[in-house]
Amino acid sequence: MIDRMRSRLPGRPDAASAPDAGDDATATARTPSFAAVTTAAVTSSPAPSAERGPRLRKGVRALAVASAQLLLIAAALVVVGWVFGKLWPVLLPVILGLLFATVLWPPTRLLRRLHFPPALAALVVLLLFFAVVGGLFTWIVPQVADQAGELADAATAGLQDVQQWVTGPPLNLGEDQIGQAVDQVINSIQGNAQNIAGYALTGVSAVGNGLLNLVLALVLAFFFIKDGPRWLPWLAAQTGPKVAPHVAALSYKTWTTLSEFIRQQALVGFVDAFFIGLGLWILDVPLVLPLAVLTFFGAFIPIIGAFVAGAFAVLIALVSNGWQTALIVLVIVLVVQQLEGNVLQPIIQGRGLNLHAAVVILAVTAGGSLYGILGTFLGVPVAALIAVVYRYVRDELDGRTPEVADDGTRVQVTGDETGATVVRERVTTPGQGAADPPADAEPPARPPA
Questions:
Q1: H/E/C letters for each residue in 169-224?
Q2: Is 65 a residue whose pLDDT tops 90?
Q3: Whether the Cβ atoms of residue 228 and residue 300 lie closer than 8 Å to each other
Q4: Disulfide engineering: 413 pairs with which of 89, 244, 331, 334, CB 3.0-4.6 Å?
Q5: Residue 139 contacts by C-beta under 8 Å, 6 or more apart in sequence?
Q6: Structure pTM?
Q7: ∠ CA 122-127-133, rounded to 5°
Q8: Is the pLDDT of residue 213 over 60?
Q9: Backbone phi and psi for residue 393, each to the nearest 5 degrees, phi listed first
Q10: Smallest Cα–Cα separation from 393: which of 271, 288, 250?
């Protein structure tokens, strides 16, 4: 034992480390001898640094925090979507009323500048809107009723031509086979008569709900255009001085975006309806005015609406005038849509929604899958509003002061306990004096209850 301890003292050679101590003979499986390896293996990987472990733990911790935040955001979106779904019967008239208000506000503002009272200006504009829409449908419905019989006869003749073509070469199907196919279709319809009746009742109920929502939306639009200027002071008054400029700026941007969407799609729809309707009129296709109106309203569902309206025009031309006219109508529709998509859209979209075509298609698809036809119509403006909020937050994070307008002013709320209003104050920049006095202030208005 003493000899073993002496051998481990500093300065004395260790028997196990001596080259002639018989390492191969004394090495055990518990303490292997690496000196016995004649050539050491070399790898190109760098040796681990002392910071690898702490950095790995830091990265895992950051990933865990980001994952938790992502899960919380996803849960919040699910809850918000559930709440919106429950409140959809209330939100739908409000959204439609806002869209109607974007159309009716410019003439209302003109009448108010002519010293019309707000309520009278809103009522006059709303009555004119009813007169225009009612007159348009009064003009269209008789034409559809008069030409529906001709189209039915043309469709019957077309089916007879199809039957003759099917029974002739190269298909050579017998009339008994065609009769069996027709009988199968009739039996299938009779077997599902109860389901079809249920679908019809559901459709009638949907139409009734749609009319009710439309009337309610028009009533709300009346109040929006009558009391619209008081909305921003009321909303800004619910916040503090620091938040009010952001609330006002976002309100202006979202309103401008909605108005620009309506104007842009109305211009696109008018161009499509005019040129496609002109082509249908030259080719003597029936239902020119209804098809032109359908094309105009189809433009409010970007990309998909134009496709559906063009398909209806080609179908009517095929039934009434034959495949040669239908082919010409198809060419006209494609040419007009290409000119609109490649020439007109880039010009007006630069100052409009500024959304990529893929985003537009995804928005229309998502809206249609969630809320049907109304969802296809509302999908693009909702996506545009989301883009406005995203860009505003991004600019604010980058320190670009998005609440400041192009003229160097921002909105601020002012007033007292009797009412509040918003004024534009000029933002002081380095090298300038004190802020200029508030501009374009309106008389304080009592906020709505």
A1: CCCCCCHHHHHHHHHHHHHHHHHCHHHHHHHHHHHHHHHHHHHHHHHHHHHHHHHH
A2: yes
A3: no
A4: 244
A5: 289
A6: 0.67
A7: 125
A8: yes
A9: -65, -40
A10: 250
